[in-house]
Structures are given as structure tokens and as C-alpha cells.
């Protein structure tokens, strides 16, 4: 449960670091499952519904950018969100009725694991209101060298910057955009078991992993049940029939009840279209959409 001070900090800054968000047992279980998935990726030769492969991936040296939708790959990832301290934090920040929008386990490999260029999650999936956030649960220690998440405090109260390049939605801001204030960035390092929280409108990004150890962060992106997607959301939603959509909504309810009355707020919205040639993940959108890199001068060790 968060203190009043922590809630105020999140409201003011658009991010929060929570120490020991999960117990030692929960952490051990999560890590066991995560490394099992990484082990199984040895036989995978191209990105698929489970794995997003990083450059240089091979059977001898598994290198992933991401395990996709972990809550669908293993029930424990869903159970943890439904009934743990994470659930309380979710209710503290979003109220009693909450849904999971999507999840991802970003497994930045040692020695250069892909950067995530600066962006606002909201640019990918605007909703009727911005009661939306992402948890970033650290499954390994996160330090300055292994590509920690960085955020711009207070940016959740500012504009949504352009995420376009060459006429397509590239999923990243231009590092030279005068409204992008990199000098204000805060780096979110922590111990395994700690968790970052960032608001959907908060500008964030992360450098390549220049260390010799993995950076495993399990992200849960959640929203209040009365925030309805205008566009984007988990892309699989758009291929569902009405019945499957209803089932999917119910399956993603974390706490409380679904809401059929969207809360409409005056929020800045730009529809993320046209798409990048490959929009199958943020990594692919940024690479194929021609995003300019804010980390171009960072070299892998
Ligand atoms: O893995 C990271 O450092 C950031 C991930 C992120 O922002 C995203 O996947 O949208």
C-alpha cells in the first residue's frame, strides 16, 4: 500500500520507485519462469507471438528484446498482478476498477541489448482519459550500465510530442525537438524486486545494455476501467469479434468491474497513423519507422 506522500509524488512527477514491491519468493518464481522462457528461445529463429528477437540471437547465445504478453504465456504473471502488493498499488493509483492493457517482459541482453527510444506510451494508445500507467518490475538489479529506464519528471502534464518520422508513426520523439528536455531526465535504478511506475503520458526511454549482465524488467500497462481506447490498445483487440472482444475485456479486468460509460476528459490526442512498415513491437516501429536515436553515441562494451 502506498503512502499519501508516494501518491502525491506520483501525481506531481508522473513516476514513482517502489522498493521491494514483491516478496523474495515471488521474485524467485518470476525469475525461474523468465529464464525458462529465455532458455526455450534457443530453438527460435525468428520473432513470433512469444519472442521478439534481438540482433545476434542464436541457439548458442539467446538474445531477446522481449517476451511478449507474459500474462498470456504463463498464469503466474497474471496471478501476481491480480493478488499481490502490485494489486494494492494499482488500486491506490487508479481506483477500484482496473484493467490490464498489455504486458511485456523486456529482456535487454548484455553487451548492447536494444535501446528504447524516448516516447510517451499515450502516443501509441490514446484513451478517453489518461488514468493509465505502467509498472516496471525489476527481475534483476538495474544499474546505470544495463540500460535503466529514464523518465522526464512532470512531462505527464505537458503536451504529447510528435512521434512521427518521414510521415509515419515511428513511436519515438525526435531528440532534437525543442520541447524534449533531456537535461531533466531522471534514471530509475534499483534492486531486483523494486518497481518503477510511470504515467502513460510520461516521456521515457532507455539506453542500450552496455554491461555484461541482463536487464530484465516486467512491464504491466494498466488503466482505469472507464478509460476506453480511441486507437491502438493491445493490437490483438482489433481482430476480435464482438463476443471475443467482450471475453477479452473480461479477461483483462484486474480488480472491480468493467465500465460501459467511458469517462471523457480533455486530453491531448493524436492518432498514431500511418503505421511504420513493421509495427509489431515498439522496437520494430522505431527501427522500421526511421526514429532518430537519442542514444546514437552510446557504444556497446
Ligand atoms: O524496456 C524499457 O526500457 C522501456 C520499455 C518501454 O518503454 C516500452 O516497451 O514501451
Write up what this structure looks like:
- It is globular, with a radius of gyration of 18 Å.
- Strands 1, 2, 3, 4, 6, 11, 13 and 14 form an 8-stranded antiparallel beta sheet that branches.
- The mean pLDDT is 94.
- The chain contains 8 helices and 14 strands.
- It has helices spanning 4-13, 24-40, 70-73, 75-82, 85-94, 121-124, 242-251, 282-288, and strands spanning 15-18, 51-53, 64-68, 98-108, 116-119, 132-138, 149-151, 164-165, 168-169, 186-188, 195-199, 204-206, 215-224, 253-255.
- By secondary structure, it is α+β, with helices and mostly antiparallel strands.
- The protein has a single domain (4-287), classed as Jelly Rolls (Sandwich).
- A hairpin with a 2-residue loop joins strand 8 (164-165) and strand 9 (168-169).
- Bound molecules: 2-oxoglutaric acid.
- 2-oxoglutaric acid binds at residues 104, 106, 116, 121, 149, 204, 206, 217, 282.
Keywords:
301 residues, alpha+beta, Jelly Rolls, 8-stranded antiparallel beta sheet, 4-stranded antiparallel beta sheet, 14 strands, 23% helix, binds 2-oxoglutaric acid
In brief:
The protein contains eight helices and 14 strands. The protein has 301 residues and is an alpha+beta fold.
Tally of separate helices: 8
Number of domains: 1
List the ions, cofactors and other small molecules found in this model: 2-oxoglutaric acid
Structural class: alpha+beta
Tell me the Rg in angstroms. 18 Å
Report the count of strand segments.
14
Tell me the fraction of residues in β-strands, as a range.
15-25%
Shape: globular
Q: Under the CATH scheme, which architecture would be assigned?
A: Sandwich
CATH class: Mainly Beta
Q: Between the first and last Cα atoms, what is the distance in angstroms?
A: 40 Å
CATH superfamily, by name, is q2cbj1_9rhob like domain
Largest sheet: 8 strands, antiparallel
Percent helix range: 10-25%
CATH topology: Jelly Rolls
| Low-pLDDT sequence parts | none
Amino acid at each position: 500500500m502506498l503512502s499519501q506522500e508516494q501518491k502525491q509524488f506520483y501525481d506531481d512527477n508522473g513516476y514513482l520507485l517502489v522498493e521491494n514491491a514483491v516478496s523474495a519468493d515471488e521474485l524467485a518464481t518470476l525469475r525461474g519462469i523468465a529464464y525458462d522462457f529465455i532458455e526455450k528461445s534457443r530453438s527460435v529463429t525468428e520473432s513470433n507471438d512469444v519472442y521478439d528477437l534481438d540482433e545476434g540471437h542464436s541457439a548458442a547465445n539467446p538474445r531477446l528484446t522481449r517476451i511478449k504478453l507474459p500474462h498470456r504465456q504463463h498464469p503466474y504473471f497474471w496471478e501476481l498482478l491480480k493478488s499481490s502488493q502490485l494489486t494494492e498499488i494499482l488500486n491506490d493509483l487508479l481506483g477500484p476498477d482496473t484493467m490490464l492493457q498489455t504486458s511485456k517482459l523486456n529482456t535487454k541482453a548484455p553487451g548492447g541489448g536494444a535501446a528504447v527510444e524516448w516516447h510517451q506510451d499515450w502516443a501509441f494508445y490514446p484513451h478517453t482519459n489518461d488514468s493509465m500507467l505502467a509498472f516496471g518490475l525489476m527481475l534483476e538489479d538495474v544499474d546505470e550500465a544495463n540500460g535503466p529506464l529514464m523518465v522526464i519528471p512532470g512531462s505527464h502534464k505537458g503536451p504529447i510530442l510528435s512521434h512521427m518520422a518521414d510521415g509515419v508513426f515511428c513511436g519515438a520523439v525526435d531528440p532534437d525537438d525543442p520541447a524534449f528536455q533531456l537535461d531533466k531526465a531522471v534514471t530509475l535504478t534499483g534492486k531486483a524486486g523494486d518497481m518503477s511506475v510511470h504515467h502513460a503520458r510520461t516521456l521515457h526511454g532507455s539506453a542500450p545494455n552496455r554491461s555484461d549482465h541482463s536487464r530484465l524488467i516486467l512491464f504491466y500497462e494498466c488503466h482505469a476501467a472507464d478509460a476506453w481506447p480511441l486507437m491502438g490498445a493491445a493490437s490483438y483487440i482489433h481482430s476480435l469479434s464482438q463476443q471475443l472482444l467482450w471475453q477479452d475485456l473480461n479477461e483483462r479486468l484486474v480488480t472491480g468491474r468493467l465500465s460501459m460509460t467511458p469517462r471523457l476528459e480533455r486530453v491531448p490526442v493524436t492518432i498514431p497513423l500511418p503505421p511504420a512498415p513493421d509495427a509489431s513491437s515498439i522496437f520494430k516501429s522505431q527501427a522500421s519507422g526511421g526514429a532518430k536515436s537519442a542514444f546514437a553515441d552510446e557504444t556497446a562494451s
